[in-house]
Amino acid sequence: MKRWIGVGLALLLGGAVAAAIVLGNRGAKSGSGAQTTLTTLHGVIGSEKLPLFKDPTVAKLFAQHGLKVEVDTAGSRQIATTVNLKDYDFAFPSSTPAAQKIKGARPGTVYSPFYSPMAVATFQPIVELLAKAGLVADSGQGYQVLDMRKYLDLVAKGTRWDALPGNTTYPARKRILLTTTDIRTSNSAAMYLAMTSYVANGDDVVTSKDQASKVADALAPLFLDQGYSESSSEGPFEDYLALGMGKSPMIVAYEAQYVSHLIAQDGAIRPDMRLIYPQPTVLSKHTLIAFTPKANDVGRLLTSDPELVKLEARYGFRTADPKAFAAAAGKNAPAAVIDVVEPPAYDHLETLIDLVQRRYLSAPRS
Amino acid sequence: MRLRGAGAARRAGLAGLAGLLLLSSLVACSSSGGSGDDEPDSPDTLRVLAGSEVKDLVPLLEESGVKVKLSYTGTLDGAEQVAGGAVKGKYDAIWFSSNRYLSLIDGASAQLSTQTKIMASPVVLGLRASKASELGWNTKQVTWADITAAAAAKKFTFGMTNPASSNSGFSALVGVAAALSNTGDALDRQQIAAVEPKLKEFFSAQTLTAGSSGWLADAYPTANGVDGLINYESVLLAMNASGKLKEPLTIIYPSDGVVTADYPLTLLSSAATPKRALYAKLAAWLRTPATQQKIMTTTNRRPIIPDVRPDQRFGTRTLLELPFPNRRSAADELISAYLNEVRRPSRTVFVLDTSGSMEGERLDGLKRALTALTGGDTSASGTFARFRNRETVTLLPFNNAPQQSQTFTLPEGDSSPVLTQIRQYSDRLFASGGTAIFDSLRAAYEQTERTLKPDEFTSIVLMSDGENTDGSSYDDFASYYQTTPRNIRTFVVLFGDSNSEEMSKVATLTGGAAFDARSGSLASAFKEIRGYQ
User: Which superfamily is assigned to A11-116+283-333 in CATH?
Assistant: First the structure.
């Protein structure tokens, strides 16, 4: 079942690229004039895309097409459950399963402008410790990988940082656990569950309820033992950038969150910070659902407007056209992340999440 | 002890205006859902329900270009209001030092929209320099276990806020419990039970309590026998810079970890569209490098954006973050264990005006307030405000003169029979006669002096709805107070037509605080005072 996927796959994501370009250009005619009244559209998006939407150039490009786009952020999975979708013209969660969940709550037209592999943002001393313990290795493709099988074994044993042999750099009496967002609200945690379920299921995608309930026991501690976790992905990543190794030695993040800062050369990524990739990892396909006719413009423009696509790439997202990302990222990201597995189908991933979620409610372990 | 500088009691919403930092927080504010409810909403004003911790940002907010109206409430109380949807339409955003407890409440996430972290401050221990060096903690790495051992050996004492009222106390409790339980992952109920003996040792050194972090900082310089405080790093740094301390506080960052406040400015999902734009503007402005720099230099908070690096005041050590519970039941269990089993017991005296003017609605309000403290308020914050196990409660009603007082002692285990007795007693209160405030307060002091136990938190509550009409005067009381051997604090409740100036003087004289129930309810004033007892 494991599939080796290069950037080429990304072409599939674009879907209706050709048609969209035509439509996008048509919209441009009325744009740019300062006199034009803009149509305001409201979106609810995963927080990791907020920097993109807040970019003044992005706003200008939308304005050229007569649009003003205002967004609120929410955990991608929260969008389907606790957000009042009637208030919005579109939703823009971070993955296909999350989008499917939202479509169930309010139907709409789907666009997949870009994707981002799940990665682990960490620090050089942590990488060294994990390499010494045999968890981190070089992929031979220009990036380092975290062996998820060995990681799950370590978590199952409840290993603490100070129990790693020869650890003088990070002797914390804290469990070795990747920091994630809340599995009940956020997509990045669900993507992490997707990749770990593959490993726990004997290197195979979970395809049945039976398999889901078998792996849930092993996977629930990955989330529950962290204690409190935040509802949306930007929170832990901000802590990573601002508060450093003490708060979160290693966090699950979208590659784009990290790479965008490298591209921007804004100094946020300090010399001791590292981005490594889980082996295997999953791709999170950011998916827009247009609820109102006008919101289709947003979906189309994000997918096919060449200037917008360039900007998306500058925010670290891998666009349907791999050249745009390669041109923006240069040496700041590998051309391709190769050990990629498919997430379980929507209903099986939901089952898995539900099984973990129930453990939050059940009586504490005794 | 005495505190200088307390002004007249004022309502929460107005308190933000002047004398912000330390002084104004001497006067505790009656909150009960904020003060702005009676004013009409204006589309260009962002109404924010906040923790008092962010008061010190008010001057800075004036530069933001966004009109912001802050109303203050306690952390847990506020969390319950928000999660239950009670603030819908009254506020557009919330700003507490942390959303963690709030997020654990069922239904809370539906009330919240965009969250923007503004700054960070860990909750740590500040110890006067000579004590810190006596213990060797100024040079070597210290763990919470080391601190607990020193506490058990009575080598130092400290003050901390009530975890049910204030986030700094709650964070400290969570952190200490997580560190002492030594499991490396988040606490659950079973681990809390296991760590209780250790927590008792730790908190045996707590000799000062408070309902808010600001009041705690103000009370410290003149508090007897308190060697330090557990508080936000930002508060401790500000105290060191204030010039009011006899000796500076050495800040101790336990090597096994801390719990850090991140002050998320959070849009409510019920906010109207124009308010959303105000929120976005304010949040973006607060995170500009220039503002972040100002936040760091003027409020001693750590910047939250990577463009602004923390300066040397914060030191360079790596602060580990301790795990925070992910179930509300665990958080509540921990607070409940702290209040009812772990901390030193309280001895509280309520001096209650039952003069003729209390007849009717006022007396009913008093009865409701007392009933709430006997378990009648079943909200979580209400439950944490009730009379605690091991507490000694004295009710002293007065009119022309102090009346016969009645003392109730709650047992360690099931306290419901005693709570019922207190409720029955308060139900029998009746109104008649005059108002001998100072004779009655003096009687309370005399009685308390006779029965006082040194290892208890002792305090007096004085509630009156009018002028002093009988017996001795305020000045008589003030001279008497100078002769008392111990300095017991009196927390005054302004009610009805009470003389706010004279009542506030009592609070200032005794190092207490004034609470205003003239436009709110007695129940919410009493509930807030419980944080100080």
Answer: Periplasmic binding protein-like II (3.40.190.10)
Question: What is the pTM for the complete model shown?
Answer: 0.86
Q: CATH 3.40.190.10 spans which residues of chain A?
A: 11-116+283-333
Per-residue confidence (pLDDT) for residue A231, from 0 to 100: 85
Answer yes or no: is B338 within a domain. no
The single residue listed with the structure tokens 């709805």 is B465
Say if residue B498's pLDDT is above 80.
Answer: yes
The two structure tokens encoding residue B1:
């002890």
pLDDT in tens, B148-191: 999 999 999 999 999 999 999 999 999 999 999 977 677 888 88
- Pick B327's closest partner by Cβ from A72, A83, A360: A360
Q: Tokens in use for B461?
A: 């509550």
In terms of domains, do B183 and B215 share one? yes
B61 and B82 co-located in one domain: yes
Contact A148, A197 (CB under 8 A): no
ipTM score of complex: 0.81
Q: What residue of B is the nearest CA neighbor of A181? A: B326
pLDDT at A362: 66
Among A228, A241, A247, A262, most B C-beta atoms within 10 A, so best to mutate, is: A228
Count of C-beta atoms within a 10 Å radius of residue B481: 18
What's the whole-number mean pLDDT along residues B41-69?
95
**A246: nearest CB among B305, B321, B325:** B321
CA B77/CA B52 separation, integer angstroms: 12
3-state secondary structure of B312: helix
With a cut of 70, which residues of chain A have pLDDT below it? 1-36, 362-366
E-only strand ranges, B328-405: 346-353, 392-398
pLDDT on residue B487: 85
Contact A227/B104, CB-based, under 8 Å?
no
Residues A182, B326: Cα–Cα separation, whole Å: 10
pLDDT of residue A9: 40
Residue A28's pLDDT is 42
Q: Which residue of A has its CA nearest to B267?
A: A72
Nearest alpha-carbon partner for A70 in A284, A235, A231, A295: A295
Do the domain assignments include residue B305?
no
Residues 165-184 of B with CB under 8 A from A: 178-179, 182, 184
